[in-house]
Amino acid sequence: MNSKRPVNLDLSKFHFPLPAITSILHRVSGIIIFVGVAFMLYGLDVSLSGEAGFERVSEILSGFLAKLIVWGIISALLYHLVAGIKHLIMDLGIGETLEGGRLAAKLTIGISGVLIILAGVWIW
User: Fold this and answer.
1) Between the CA of residue 38 and those of 10, 44, 45, 85, what are the distances in Å?
2) Which pLDDT score is estimated for 114?
3) Which of 84, 71, 68 is CA-nearest to residue 115?
4) pTM as predicted
5) How many other CB atoms sit within 10 Å of the CB of residue 68?
6) Where are the alpha helices (DSSP H) in the chain?
7) pLDDT tens digits for 6-64?
8) Closest Cα to residue 42, out of 73, 16, 18?
9) Is 76:33 a contact under the CB 8 Å cutoff?
10) Is residue 71 classed exposed, middle or buried when 0-12, 13-18 and 19+ CB atoms within 10 A define those classes?
11) Is the pLDDT of residue 90 over 80?
């Protein structure tokens, strides 16, 4: 047996390039959307049950924590949308080089950041 094998990996020594980080965030945002849609559909169901249900959901959504959760779900949706468009463009053969991938990652972060800030302004 090789005695130089590491016992535990030091995760702080791993440094991912920006395109890898955007790809991982794309997957994480998909999971957030999947979970968030369940809560949003439940709120829609309660709000459509009658006037009392609508008032209850409206009251819940006027709170700070609810607005923060909704903003998080919308932020995940916007990032996922921008990253998905980037993937579609790359599927067309545009930006497949190393430099193109880095530029596309920077544009994905920038555009989605602007959209997320605008969504926050819209919600509050």
Assistant:
1) 36, 10, 11, 24
2) 98
3) 71
4) 0.86
5) 13
6) 18-47, 51-61, 64-91, 98-123
7) 677 777 788 899 999 999 999 999 999 999 999 999 999 999 999 999 999 999 999 99
8) 73
9) yes
10) middle
11) yes
